[in-house]
Amino acid sequence: MLSASPACLPPLAAAATRVAAPRLGVGVGVRQLSTSHAHPQLMPAPKDFNRTPDEIVAELNKHIIAQDDAKRSLAIALRDRWRRQSLQNDDLRKEVTPNNILLIGPSGCGKTELAKRLAAFAGAPFVKVVATRYTEVGFVGDDTVSMVHELAEQSYMDEKRRMKDLVMDQAKTRAKNELIKAIMKNPLSDTWTESLISEYLDDGRLNEMEVELDAELLTRDEPQKSPLADIFGNMAGGPGGGMGGGRPGGISAVPIGVSVQGPNASDINSKLEDLFGTGGRKSKKKGEKKKVKVAEARPLLEDHYANELINEEDLTENARVAAEQRGIIFIDEFDKLITDKQENEGGYKGKRKGVQKELLTLMEGTTVSTKIGRLRTDHVLFVASGAFTQSKPTDIMPELQGRLPIRCELKPLTEADFIKILKETRYNLLMQQEALLATEGVSLKFSDDGINEIAKIAHTLNTETANVGARRLKTVMAKLLEDLKFDAHKMTGKTVEVTADMVKEKLATMTKQSDLSKYII
Ligand SMILES: Nc1ncnc2c1ncn2[C@@H]1O[C@H](COP(=O)(O)OP(=O)(O)OP(=O)(O)O)[C@@H](O)[C@H]1O
Ligand SMILES: [Mg+2]
């Protein structure tokens, strides 16, 4: 028998009331269910990153082996940002620009990984671009600005996720109330009360039950490319927009109207909406109903209400400030922009020079009109990276060199480093494989001599064929475990130990044919 629960349902929300969000750059703007019950989490969070350099290095050490110089420089760059933001004198603060960084080192030694981990740790909007993209045939100049559009988009998505987290408790309550309302319309038993349904919803008993809900409430909040995105992207790059005339970057999760300002903006918006539809989640017809299982409906409803509780204007502004003050743009293959002195002027050479000049403009500081507003690039941290095997950093345009004052040389990884990468990094490759096979009840173990052998083979392959750095470990591991992974489902309950002999044997069949690289790219 099911028993009624005394638990009361939270009252359905009254009219949503806007709570003013102080503009602290990382402040939070959300709609509250009730101003009298202000949620403590909704207070502006001073999320400014204030970790010390040694804390930053310690964090990087969890994921990246060796490369101490680069870790130090990146930690200083991040700390300098915090120092700058702590400056009281506004004018002085404006003058302090970041010391952009040039990472030099062979393939697969951790350049990109370092920058990614740093950005994740700092909660900074981060984008990675490849410099050669801008020199490709058919690429129109000035488009380097698209990296700023991408940063804006990333920042918007990060901020949205953060703000959604803050309102999630309220959104869950609303979603649950909506489900209760729907179930009460057609209860399976006369004895069901709201509080009983609430209890059943909590313990998952109603997961398979079908409910009828407004289709509008069930649309997934996925960033979608709207036809309007292009229009607004272009409009935003209009006169006075600095370098904003570039192509609008990719998908648009940004609401309509963000980029269109002025007296006729809403008029333009509604006309364009009539023409194209919104392309987003509100395209469902009003009143349309849909039958769904409770378990499927719940996360969609929660997402819907979380979106509703977020104030779009504050979200956009927070995202813009975060991108401007904390954004990191990582430019890979920077060395490919260097021109050869023997090369003829014009053609590719001209293009590469052109891209260097455009990057200089971005690094010197300019305004780009993005979908989240006008974004200054002065304080964005640029991290450029390249192998510089065919060229030297001194071949970069002198002015651009000046904008990359910090140079870090990353070392090629040794066999001993490979062992550490395998054993000591967080969620390392060994742990990953063990966990994957454990899902099928196979217990995988790596002995120390087995690990040493993997590192040795990976290192030998790098020396004898192309040096792809630590990436080699992944390909060696894939080959080594290929048979096991194919058959694991038939091996439940078994233990497999990877020893040096096993590694040799598994890879020997191939090494016998003298060239291992034929089989392991
Ligand atoms: N020092 C390191 N410590 C731990 N793992 C590393 C290290 N270097 C590389 N790796 C691993 O190898 C992968 C490739 O590294 P990464 O992308 O940083 O190479 P890269 O230096 O940027 O090379 P490329 O010049 O080819 O872009 C990473 O995802 C990471 O798993
Ligand atoms: Mg890289």
Describe the structure.
It comes from Vitrella brassicaformis (strain CCMP3155). This is AAA+ ATPase domain-containing protein. The chain is 46% helix and 10% strand. It has 521 residues and is of the alpha/beta class. It has a 5-stranded parallel β-sheet, sandwiched between helices. Helix 5 packs across helix 9 and helix 5 packs antiparallel against helix 10. The radius of gyration is 28 Å and the shape is globular. Adenosine-5'-triphosphate (ATP) binds at residues 64-67, 105, 107-113, 332, 387, 413, 421, 425, 469-471.
Summarize this structure briefly.
By secondary structure, the chain is of the alpha/beta class. The protein has 18 helices and 13 strands.
Keywords:
10% strand; binds adenosine-5'-triphosphate; two-stranded antiparallel ribbon; nucleotide-binding; ATP-dep_Clp_protease_ClpX; ATP binding; globular; 13 strands; ATP-binding; single chain; ATP hydrolysis activity; binds magnesium ion; 3 domains; 521 residues; Helicase, Ruva Protein, domain 3; Rossmann fold
